[in-house]
Amino acid sequence: MSETPWIASYPAPARWDAPLDLGPVQALLDDAAERFGDRPAVEFMGKRATYGQLHALANRAAKGFQQLGVGPGVHVGLYLPNTPHYLVAFFGVLKAGGTVVNYSPLDAAQVLAHKVVDSETSVLVTLDVPTLLPQMEALLGTGRFTTLVVGGLADLAAFPAYADVGTGGAVSQEGRVPFQALLANDGAYQPHPIGDPSATIAVLQYTGGTTGLPKGAMLTHANLTAATSQFMETTKVEPPVLVPGEERTLLVLPLFHIYSLTACMLLCVRLGAEMILHTRFDLEAVVNDLAAKHVTIFLGVPTMFTALLAYPGLAELDLTSMKYAGSGGAPLPLEVQHRFRAVTGCELNEGWGMTETSPSGTFYPMHGKRKAGSCGIPVPQAMLKFASVTDPATYVPLGERGEICIKGPNVMKGYWHNPQATADVMTADGFLRTGDVAYMDADGYVFIVDRIKDMLLCGGYNVYPRNIEEAIYTHPGVAEVSVIGIPDEYRGQSPKAFIALRSGAAPFTIDELKEFLKDKLGKHEMVQVIEFRESLPKTAVGKILKTALYEEEAQRRAAATAGV
Amino acid sequence: MNPPGMLVRPIAPSDEAAYLAILETTSAEDRYCRFFHAVDHFDPNEVRHFVEERSDMIGMIAFEGAAPLGAAHAALLDERTAELAIVVARGERHHGVGAAMLEALIVELKRRRYQRLIACALRENTPFGTLAKHAGFTIEKADGGTVRWVLSLSSHEPAPSP
Fold it and tell me: Which of helix, strand or coil describes residue B101?
């Protein structure tokens, strides 16, 4: 087999060796404003801004951030749901010369505190809502975090026509700046040439791991624009399906997640597409907007598509405006893929990637071969090799199972302030070890078969059992605990905890445990099922045997299915 | 050969305090690597289990003077195969303690005509990976975050000193 069998599977006019744009991320918005200035860019709760207006607001945010001291080397956190604040602040930070640090509203308090300190966040933008502001007010003053920019849903009354005069970015004694004050200027910010786009960090994107607290993946300007360019190239078909300036997407995947940030937001800005923002996955609202607003691009995770296809009134809705749909974050059930095509007439394309790859990796050609169970072929200019799982220092021949290793302009610069973690995931020849085990067929299609990491995929999020175990161990009644993933029809997998209690400790309910864990675990990683045991299965030298727990669980489910 | 000043000998019930002292020097990370779960206290019965004379386990302990440096165990799974576990006190890493205890275990296992020594380790346990490779182990299987290392004792020659 050749070293690049996937090249022959590229449907013209898409090319694996297509030139990629590797430039400043903020230039995507500058270009969109120039090309599609009068076209709608954002719609949120009935308010709409054109690309020209979004661009002007980003410029004003840039000047406001610069008045707060943001520039090269300064890190600005975004702790926001999908509202226009995110887009304005994201491009504003980059235009000001700063680096964006994405924060997840799903994170537990201790993870937020870690990110604030580890990332050296100085300024952070959030909303004045009970689920966000108190968490960040509690952290103000931690590490370098001195300034909190606070927006509110009330800001949207004026959106996008904010006053361009006022107090400027004045910081109150408490370190707070209203979002509208950030924008109260003429937008004449000081541009900062970014230098080498492959060296300058645009976004610190935190990602979990099997050990310890999350690490910040350093995604450069070139990483993000390369990934955007790769996604763009993969949508090319003849005749063209996606028309720049004509498309419309419903953006419900959270923008703090790399999949939504690059594959949805940056791709849509590159396309001059209108982005209809939803702050959460409300099925009724999503389904209604998909149909009524004639959405043409929709990216989601398998749980969303499963819910969508189960919507009772789906048959009465016209979803045939859909031209491009993609699913990521977790394996997509074939049945969902088939049903989606039947309902919309549009293929639901699956891909593979990870935070460290910005997150492009593999894709499904829109008009290429379709292979059940495959996540597609490598994106433009990405090389894939497969490392031996028994000897990671060597590669296996293509066609054999091995750990996916990837190299390309979309692969991160490394982990922030963590050279050891970076070294641990890089091969001697500069490929990123991904932890996913797969094989590639003769056409270059990748089939994922296993995972080397102890990690669960819950509703599209990576969840690490060890983090859950460590949180449960802090319960005074727990002597031993082991967490495994159990099948979940909706979320793909859910965490289940096997617990041995300390002598004399009283058992507790799952709800009591959830209450105990609410400040220690993110919502996405919350344990869903518990089972008490006298003791946990161990090897002869005292190591807990997770494989035995997985086998027991599988046997129990098989017996239940068989009606035994 | 043991590093100068180090004594490696079979573990005995009288080593209970020394073994516990070794465990108590370890970090949360070390303990997760040793026990595959987040141990925050050591059950006296379990500590005793690893120092008492047993027909299904061989234990070695290393000292420098009166200071305990580490302990290694081989659980005898059947007539041919044993399973390895090693713990080295924090601050005593990279001094050859693990290699010396492993070599002592291998000598004893070969004397008893054991043919295979296996070890299950977390993928991120790179110190063990380095030790295992140096001793001649190869990876038999890797999944779900764990790696199963195997050493054939019938063909094993002592590794040269690092």
Answer: helix
In chain B, what residues touch A437 (CB-CB under 8 Å)? 143
Residue with tokens 């949180």, as numbered in its chain:
A471
pTM over 0.90: no
Write down the domain spans for chain B.
Answer: 6-114
Per the listing, tokens 């005593």 go with: B92
Q: B9 has which bridge partners?
A: B61
**Among A159, A153, A179, CA closest to A168:** A179
DSSP 8-state symbol, B6: E
The pLDDT tens digits of the residues spanning B54-99 come to 999 999 999 999 999 999 999 999 999 999 999 999 888 778 999 9
CATH of A456-562, one of 3.40.430.10, 3.30.70.20, 3.30.300.30, 1.10.3720.10: 3.30.300.30
Task: Specify the residue for token string 């209450």.
Answer: A515
Cβ–Cβ gap A540/B123 under 8 Å: no
- CA nearest neighbour of A67 among A103, A91, A92: A92
pLDDT tens, position by position, A32-84: 999 999 999 999 999 999 999 999 999 999 999 999 999 999 999 999 999 99
State whether B139 and A390 contact (CB < 8 Å): yes
In this prediction the ipTM stands at 0.87
- Counting one residue from chain A and one from chain B, the pairs whose CB atoms sit within 8 A come to 87
E strands present in A221-303: 248-251, 274-277, 297-300
User: Please, which residues bridge with residue A100 across strands?
Assistant: A76, A203
Whether B145 sits inside 8 A of A453 (CB atoms) is yes
- Looking up tokens 């492959």 gives A198
| Closest alpha carbon to A97 in A194, A225, A232, A17 | A194
Per DSSP, the three-state class of A240 is coil
pLDDT tens, residue by residue, A180-204: 999 999 999 999 889 999 999 999 9
What pLDDT is stored for residue B142 in this prediction?
A: 79
| All residues at 6 or more sequence positions from B75 whose CB lies less than 8 Å from its CB, including other chains | A539, A540, A541, B56, B57, B82, B83, B85
**In CATH, what is the architecture of B6-114?**
3-Layer(aba) Sandwich (3.40)
Contact A544 B124 (CB under 8 A): no
DSSP code of residue A262 = I
CA distance A433 to chain B (A): 13
Q: Tokens standing for A477?
A: 């009644």
| Spatial separation of the C-alpha atoms in residues A539 and A543, rounded to whole Å | 5
- Would you tell me the crossing angle of helices B126-135 and B97-111 to the nearest 10 degrees? 50
Beta strands at A176-178 and A383-387: parallel, antiparallel or unpaired: unpaired
**Cβ–Cβ gap A211/B29 under 8 Å:** yes
Across the range A124-150, mean pLDDT stands at 96
Q: Report residue A482 as tokens.
A: 């082991």
Q: DSSP 3-state assignment of A453? A: coil
Question: Residues near A342 by Cβ (< 8 Å), separated by ≥ 6?
Answer: none
DSSP readout, A193-239? ----TTTSEEEEEEE--SSSS-EEEEEEHHHHHHHHHHHHHHT--SS
Report yes or no: A547 at the B interface, CB cutoff 8 Å. yes
CATH number of the structural domain A47-193: 3.40.50.980
Collect all residues of chain B within an 8 Å Cβ-Cβ radius of residue A390. 138-142
